[in-house]
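FIELD: query
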Amino acid sequence: MTIVEAIRTVLQDVPEGLTAKEIYQSIVKNELYEFGAKDPIGVVNGQIRRRCVGLDFPTAYPIKVFRISGQQGKKNRFALYLDKTGPAENKSAAGKKSSDDLLPEEKISTAVSEHLAAIRQQLLDSILELDPSFFESLVVTLLVKMGYGPDEQSGAVTKASHDSGIDGIIREDRLGLGLIYLQAKRYAPQNKVGRRAIQEFVGAMEHVSKGIFITTSSFTPEALSYAEKQQQKSIKLIDGQLLSDLLVKYEVGVNVAQTVSVYRIDSDYFNTGS
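FIELD: result
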């Protein structure tokens, strides 16, 4: 019997769930599995969390066997994951995560998420501190890095005296037959872009059918609805949250400071000799 099979055997008779320590104690009491590890409770906890619905991290398994059924003090209780429990119940239970039970790779994943959130905010703060012309240049650089246009010379910031409401232009092909117009608004978070600004952008596009409106803030519901319902023009709206995501993804304004490798056991390798 494997550790996972032993855990499942214990939980079959306890629908309300048990803590990792209680599961370990029951396994030992019923002689279901003989542990050789220095931290057997940690082993049990790790086997459960890697197969627990709602817990997704680099070394988690795709097939879920267990679920978080509640908490006992600062510890999570685990139960068998059955389809009949329903997605709403499992989602709610999975949200009750205790930091005491987190695996090292989960802590890494959480720390990375928090780090990225901080970097994204720093990017937006840095943009707001600089001149609007810098923001116009930045969005052109970003679009080119994302693959719009055949080369690095595909994007250009329009001259301030001749932009007619257009801040940048992306040439999708070398001859410039396909154009994308850009509008960049460097706004504070509380200053949302409204429908009128989108209407003016559409009017300034004239014969060009593709446009991207980028802001450091967000869009009002009316602005989003107007852009979505456009028939003659194809308009993409990028708010501050998406903008910061794209800047990090395509490494515009950021550099990779360190790379950390997270490993998982190669089950196929160890099963070869069995």
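FIELD: remark
The mean pLDDT is 87.
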